[in-house]
Design goal:
Elements lengths: L8 E5 L5 E6 L9 E3 L9 H7 L6 E4 L3 E5 L10 H13 L7 H15 L6 H18 L3 E9 L2 E8 L7 H16 L5 E4 L2
Parallel strand pairs: 7-8
Antiparallel strand pairs: 1-2, 2-5, 3-4, 4-5, 6-7
Helix pairs in contact: 1-2
Length: about 200
């Protein structure tokens, strides 16, 4: 009987100088990631709760096989490399899930209900483009983008993980996401970030 390979953790910078991405050779969860902006928000994630216990952690994004940890503006997230690695090692050795399965099930049920609701709307097309083109690209930098709404031609997005408060997020929104959505969907006139 073979055992799982030893846990490997690779720390990497992100475009956001306040965030650092930790890539694991293990799957933490299936599907979209979860963004936690405070320790109070992390109740559904044993892993995020442990990371928030580290001094200076102000944000945690748990992705499929990576974690992005954010610190305060002007602080160096690399100072947390050793404590984050220790926390990830301890979590991997435990039987705790990265994120509570019930919350995952709720998210999947909501996504499935949205698919079954009827013909594709502009919002459905926006979400499809975000999920298939944009989100995989920003995940490479330790972040995520969530669709929050479409009103009067404006797509409202929430930036998570390394994308949240990143200095280059405006370029990502305008030159990347907005251009793609306007090219594919003429009813889109702009994109804006929401808190």
């Amino acid at each position: 009987m073979s055992s799982a390979p030893e846990l490997s953790i690779q720390a990497a910078p992100t475009p956001n100088p306040s965030s650092r991405k930790y890539v694991l050779n293990r799957t933490l969860l299936a599907g979209a990631g979860f963004d936690f902006r405070s320790a109070g928000d992390a109740e559904a994630s044993p892993l995020a709760a442990k990371l928030f216990a580290l001094d200076g952690v102000q944000g945690v994004f748990v992705g499929p096989s990576f974690v992005t940890v954010s610190v305060g503006l002007g602080e160096d997230p690399a100072k947390l490399d050793a404590p984050v690695a220790e926390t990830l090692q301890a979590h991997a050795a435990s039987s705790d899930p990265a994120v509570d399965a019930e919350k995952l099930a709720e998210q999947r049920a909501a996504a499935e209900a949205a698919k079954q609701a009827g013909p594709m709307t502009t919002e459905d097309h926006i979400v499809r483009l975000l999920d298939t083109v944009i989100r995989p690209a920003v995940a490479n930098d330790g972040g995520d983008i969530v669709f929050c709404g479409f009103e009067d031609g404006i797509v409202k997005l929430r930036l998570r993980g390394a994308c949240h408060q990143c200095p280059s997020s405006l370029v990502t929104l305008k030159a990347g996401i907005e251009n793609l959505l306007r090219r594919e969907l003429p009813e889109v006139v702009g994109v804006e970030a929401v808190p």
